[in-house]
Amino acid sequence: MNAQQLVTAVPAHGPARPVGLLRVEGKDAASFLNGYTTQEVATLATGNVRFGAITDWKGQVTDVVTFVGLAEAILLVGTPGRIRAVHKGLQRYLLGVDVRLSAVSGWQALDMPGAPDGWPGVTEGGAAVAACLGAAAMDGDGAILIGPAHPGPAARLLVPAEHEAAWGEALAVAGWSMLDDEAVTRYRIASGWPEPDRDLPLACNPWEARLAPFVRMDKGCYLGQEVVARLINYKRVQRWLMGTRADAAVPEGVALLADGVEVGRMGSSVPDGAGGWLGLALVGAAAAEPGVVLTTAEGVALMLEDRPLWAGAAPAAT
Predict the structure, then answer these.
(1) For the domain bounded by 196-310, which CATH number is listed?
(2) What pTM value is reported for the model?
C-alpha cells in the first residue's frame, strides 16, 4: 500500500481534532514571519499554502506549521500546545512593525480523503466553503477550507468547535467522508510527517525532523538560521527521524536497541491495515539507514525505512 491508499482505505466518519491556530495580520505580517521560519513566506499569496518549521535562536523546532494565505492575514496551523509557544515567542519581537498576533482558540479540524474538483486550495467563509463542497449553507463565517496540515491528498476543514457537529452532518449529506484519527495518523506516518508532541522532543532541529524539503537555504535570515546551516554544512546532525515497520505495537518513548545498546526512541505508531505497524522514531545517525533492524528490550523487531516526504532528504553521511 502506498500513502494515498493508506488514507482512502478508511473513509470513516471520524471525530474532529483539536488544532492550534495563530492569525498574523498587518502590512508587515509576511516579512515579519519570514524572519522566524525555515520556509519562504514573504511571497505567500492569498489562497496559497506552504509548510515549514518555526525555530528558536538555537535552531530548534518550536512547531511544524502550515502557512495559509488568507485575504487579510496569514494563518498558522500547528499543534495546540506548541502554537501557544510560537505566539509567546513572536510577541517578543513586535517592535517597530505593523503586525498583530491573535490566537484563534476553540477550533477543530475535519479531514477529508479528497478535495473538490478545481479547488484552488484555500476557501474562507462559511457560505463560500459550503458552496465549494456542495453542502447546505451554514450560518456564520467561521470556516476555512485548506490544503492539509501536512502534505497529502486530504482537504482540511477548520471550524469553531460549536459548529463542528453541524458541519459534519452537512458534509455527510453532501457525500463527503470524514477521516478518523487512525486514518489521518496512518497517512501522516506513512508519508513521514512528524507530529511535534509525539515525534519531536523540544531539542530537535529541522534536519533531525526530516523537514529538509521545507528548509529554504536561499531565503533571507531567520531566527536560528546560522545554527541550522552549520549543522548540515559541517555534517553535525546527530540523529534522524526514520520510519519503522514492525509486527507488533511499540509504545511511544520506548528505547530502540542495536546489539543491546540504545540508539533511538520510538515516536508515534499506527496499525498499517494489514496486520503490522508503521511508526516514526528518532535514531542516532550511525544506525539511521533504511533496512537496519532495531529491537526493543521486549524483543520486538523494527525495520527502519525512508518515507516519501523525505525524497531527496535521506540521511546524510556524518
Answers:
(1) 2.40.30.160
(2) 0.90
